[in-house]
Design brief:
five-stranded mixed β-sheet; 2 domains; six-stranded mixed β-sheet; Nucleotidyltransferase, domain 5; globular
Length: about 300
Amino acid sequence: MSRRLAFIDLGTNTFHLLIVELDAQGVQNTLYKTKVPVKLGEGGISKGEITAAAQDRALRTLGEFKETMTQHGVEAVKATATSALRNASNGAEVVQAIKEQTGIDVEVISGAREAELIFKGVQMAMQVGPKPVLVMDIGGGSVEFILGTDKGILWKKSFEIGAQRLLDKFYPDQEQPIKPEQVKALRHYLQDQLQKLTAAVLQHQPEVLIGSSGTFDTLVDMDLAAQGLTRDLDASPEAELSVNTFLNQYKALLQKSRAERLAIPGMLAMRVDMIVVASVAIAWVLEKYNLEKIRVSAYALKEGMLAELLQQ
């Protein structure tokens, strides 16, 4: 007997829906996958609330997800929410409204749990290998860092320094190119906020950065588009991005206005605002920790939920 399951990741910036079919042996077949830029954190995340407009967008999107799940004959749904709802003063009310209007039960998970699921998603996408690696997942609300090997997690932490928060704090006018002093202030902030990560990196000495989904996927798409290619995610959820390629992309992104960024081949409209501050963070991490290689996993939290289910 096969079962149809849905996994929903209610991120601060993006909502993801994954629908899979599992047979008795646990072999899965992906039936449907989508991501929608809901921008749940926009306008309220720095004040610790979900705005009415953001809640409306969330409810509308989840209503559409519900229809899609019905069309695909989904039997069970697992929905998790992260930083924006975790920290919002009205988070519980939003979760309640979702339940009342769509029937979807949302579990708000901790940062540590989020990091754990992300690592499981990455492990599903690629062989992590026996040497410690540093996994980085840049969300709108939080950034997860995980140090691990193919045996499992050595250290993990979620930091509330996601791209929407960084935008609000350091780069509120995204129409213009970011100013050098804004970049400098942001780098100082990362230095200060990531002291616990710095200590953990010193202890475990990773050489490779694994970027999970989101911004990293877009950087890979931009690199391929520059060569006239596109990424085939059905072929492989893993990609590589050379450090040199990234540094060239980063330099170019710093110089561009929003309209110019939007015109870059491979750029997604939903990433155009956050990609600048996200790239500042990636560049800081590469430089600070002397990482020599970037691997990119298209899988993240929702695939981690699936991996966990398959393990059970």
